[in-house]
Write a structure and sequence with these properties.
Blueprint: E1 4-10, H1 17-25, E2 32-38, H2 45-55, E3 59-63, H3 70-80, E4 85-88, E5 94-95, H4 99-110, E6 114-122, E7 128-130, H5 133-139, E8 152-155, H6 156-161, H7 174-185, E9 189-200, H8 213-234, H9 240-259, H10 265-281, H11 285-293, H12 308-317, H13 321-334
Parallel strand pairs: 1-2, 1-4, 2-3, 6-9
Antiparallel strand pairs: 4-8, 5-9, 6-7, 6-8
Helix pairs in contact: 7-8, 8-9, 8-10, 9-10, 9-13, 10-12, 11-13
């Protein structure tokens, strides 16, 4: 058994793959295995992966016959991984050379199920941005860990004993479903701030500025999966504070992002109807409504299906109204956290 299995799905990332692989094969922690899953790339990505495999015996290369998406590719990696911990890197990103050494050191010191580092985002204009989610998690709880999932390593026994996988039917946002499943089963989460995962924003990536209706449906389905699994995990013993945190940080935040990524009426209606469903799935939805209502108009709560058309009209008419209204909701919830 090696210390960490690093799983990297590959699909048409020829311009970025060497940068990614160089940052992984040159890790100061050498006792790792590197699992590359080529998801039927049509560019030169497979040839690049093969060249690295020839020079590094730690690399396992899986070449899928048909394109099935990142979830299936990562699950294939999970099937063959043998590491004590599991790590994930996207093929267009990179990591500090001592990234896994520091994460593993913390994991062994604390016997943590999950250890998370910091993510630095590199914009398309070259600007570097750090939103220190670690500080937010430290002040509140592990349930604020709703993204930046690649910045962590996960104890493999926790993942395998609980049959945690990426939902293969979701081609977008399946990573946050995996993260939620891991968080629900984890007993301990540790944070380190001295190494970084470098997330490169791309105009042509799956999370580019504008997304299709199909992509929105995937994101909304992922949110529904998350809430369903939270309900199943805790039943009637779910702490009230958990729902407030989860609703604030996951559902509202991601819906806020999603609803602005497609200008069509269909996209706005999909998001609003899903928000109604999610809101009413919350066990403490009535109390949650009272918390966030304040001086906001009732329509902002999206609790009545017959007001969907009216809400869509508002979102279609005013360019920034969705940002304003959803930000007001977030701020109202934040006041009681």
């Amino acid at each position: 058994m090696c210390k960490i299995s690093v799983i990297i799905p590959i699909y048409n990332v020829e311009p970025y793959l060497k940068r990614c692989l160089d940052s992984v094969v040159n890790q100061t922690l050498s006792d790792i295995e590197i699992i590359l899953i080529n998801d039927c790339s049509t560019d030169n990505s497979l040839e690049i992966a093969k060249s690295y495999k020839q020079n590094d015996k730690r690399i396992i290369l899986i070449d899928l016959p048909i394109n099935q998406g990142a979830a299936v590719a990562r699950n294939k990696g999970l099937e063959v991984a043998s590491g004590e911990y599991l790590g994930f890197v996207d093929p267009d990103d990179a990591i500090d050379l001592n990234f896994y050494e520091e994460l593993y050191k913390k994991a062994k010191e604390t016997d943590a199920d999950i250890v998370k580092a910091v993510r630095e985002r590199i914009q398309t204009n070259g600007k570097h941005v750090i939103y220190n989610l670690n500080e937010i998690i430290k002040k509140n709880s592990k349930y604020f860990f709703t993204h930046e999932w690649q910045t962590a390593i996960y104890k493999s026994s926790m993942i395998y004993n609980n049959n945690i996988i990426f939902p293969p039917e979701i081609r977008k946002s399946q990573d946050i479903v995996f993260l939620n499943r891991a968080i629900l089963k984890s007993k301990s989460l540790e944070l380190i701030n001295n190494v970084k995962y470098y997330y490169y924003k791309r105009n042509d990536s799956l999370d580019a500025n504008k997304i299709s209706i199909e992509g929105i449906k995937y994101e909304l389905k992922a949110l529904e999966y998350i809430l369903e699994e939270c309900n199943q995990a805790y039943g009637n013993e779910l702490p009230e504070q958990f729902y407030i945190e989860k609703y604030y940080n996951t559902f509202i935040t991601i819906l806020n992002y999603t609803i602005t990524q497609n200008d069509s009426r269909e996209a706005k209606e999909l998001c609003i109807r899903k928000h109604i469903k999610l809101f009413n799935m919350c066990k403490d939805c009535e109390k949650l409504a009272q918390i966030i209502k304040g001086n906001l108009p009732d329509i902002v709560l999206y609790t009545k299906n017959n007001e969907v058309d009216k809400m869509v009209d508002i979102f279609m008419k005013y360019e920034n109204i969705q940002l304003y209204l959803l930000s007001k909701i977030r701020n109202k919830i934040k006041e009681v956290l």
